[in-house]
Amino acid sequence: MKISARNTLKGKIVEITKGATTSHVRIDIGGAVVTASITNEAVADLGLAVGKQAYAVIKASDVMVGID
């Protein structure tokens, strides 16, 4: 797989929560869990399932920081 995004984190899918049109896919990347919000169609097209290996691909132009 070659993509332009520089931040790719390989991990294992630990949970998929499907909604009406969107799913939340949780990927464990070595103790930290990243959650992606993707379409249900993308979940089906990619054949995603709990226990399978997947990449979290992070493409962002901004990172925000907040405090309490």
TrEMBL record:
InterPro entries: Mo/tungstate-bd_C_term_dom, Mop_domain, Transp-assoc_OB_typ1. Residues 2-67 form the Mop domain. It comes from the Bacteria. Keywords: Molybdenum. One of its GO terms (biological process) is molybdate ion transport. This is Transporter. It comes from Mesorhizobium hungaricum.
